[in-house]
Design brief:
The chain is α/β, with parallel strands linked by helices. Helix content is about 55%, strand content about 15%. The strands form two sheets. A nine-stranded mixed sheet has the order 2-3-1-4-5-6-7-8-9, with helices on both faces. Strand 8 and strand 9 form a beta hairpin.
Length: about 525
Amino acid sequence: MNIYLIALLIISSLCAIFSLTLHLQMLQQNSYYPSRYFGWLKGNYNKALLKDAILYLIISALVLLKFYRIGCLVALIFLLKNLKKSRKTQKKSIKPLVFTDRVKRIYLTASLLFLVLIVLYILSPATIIGRFAITVCLILCYVPPLLTFTLWGITLPIEKRISKYYVDDAKKILASRPDLKIIGITGSYGKTTTKFILTRLLSEKFNVVCTPHSYNTPMGVVRTVRTMLKPQTQIFVCEMGAKNIGDIKEICDIASPDFGLITSVGPQHLETFKSLDNVFATKFELADAVKANGGAVFVNGDSKEIAERIGEGFITYGTDKKFDFCGEKLSYGRNGSEFTVKLGSKKIKFTTKLLGLHSIIDIIGAVSLAYTLGVGVSDLQYAVASLKPAEHRLEMKPFTNGSLLIDDAYNSNPEGCLEAVKVLGSFDGMKKVIVTPGLVELGDKEYECNYALGKEAAKNCDIIILVGKNRSKPMQDAVQDSGYSQENLYVAASFKEAMEIYSQFADNNSVVLFENDLPDNYLY
């Protein structure tokens, strides 16, 4: 047994644990699905993987040649490098790794795994078991994706057991509350905004709880039920997200909704759904669950993909007079928007600080459901007037050098992005600037949708700042094809660089639109 070899294994193990920061961050951002994590590796990590392989070969060669002291020095250098890289990843990431209980369990498992391998070598240094322990330890240390996948596999049975316990507990809580009304909201886009709007409107008459932030996964719903529902809660508004067929049904099996609201069907997550028909079928898993409970389903009739596919038995809302709830006479101003909604036999005027046609349609959907549940007209008018934009969704606020920011960073759907650019274009007499990396997860429609966004930007913007030299290529093509002045088109490598460019133009007569703020795994 060589003490320097043991030191090498310990240092290498620490090096591997610090290398996990970036990989767990990407695994977490991809909802702990290995296939999506490996998709990120394929698109963004080729050079780093090569460096890892070279490092592993160097350390292995030093071990085979019994240059243990040199091996310790090399491992120590890379430990310090990985420690610095880990801190940098957390500090500079748009969405850093969140140290949830699951992430903590993965780190604990990593520590125990390396401890077991080192102890095996100490107990049997000259045997096959000892040599096997060294080999496995070094491979896992210097091939981070393999370590990440190994840890995911080891902890998966534990995570499933924990999830099942929490799900069963949430079901018991809901089963004990037969008086509680549950509203499910889903859609390719607009569901988070509609959820918050509906919650505000319903709170005029009821005690309401909704899933916070963008919680829309089974475990997000379960956590809300277990920690936020109170005995006095009368309505639970539950956002439901999906990336695969069956995802909405899984949430409905937990929540068992009495009412449903479907905001849209569009080309989101086509890389996993494969087709719009699959998107529609998944979103309407909510309708199946609600109808099985004898409830009512509200749908956005302005969504083309919904209008073309639905039959009878739905309550429609939107901007067409044939809908059950129709909004019209929409106008914009610096103070917000004005419009009317047909409620029964009357047309009621509403004012709001929210901008964009899609926001107004979200309001109409929420008004239609709240009105059906008994919220009065005057209460609805007051609640709509008091609405504030959801964080980072067409949110107006003061910005650099006295300029105005329209923050739409959390908008990632094609229709909403086009509408946001049109809203920017309505600010007459001001210098209009857009900063955007474009749209992702649109499958074979990604180029088409980003090209359309570039075309719309060329029509409405005085200055265009695109983020990501490769990512923004479709928008660059569209802007150039539009005959737009190349002097006013900028392509930045990062949001930081984009802000440096914008600061050159910013003044009290400028308005800038932040359109979509992609997480780190997409910026390249």
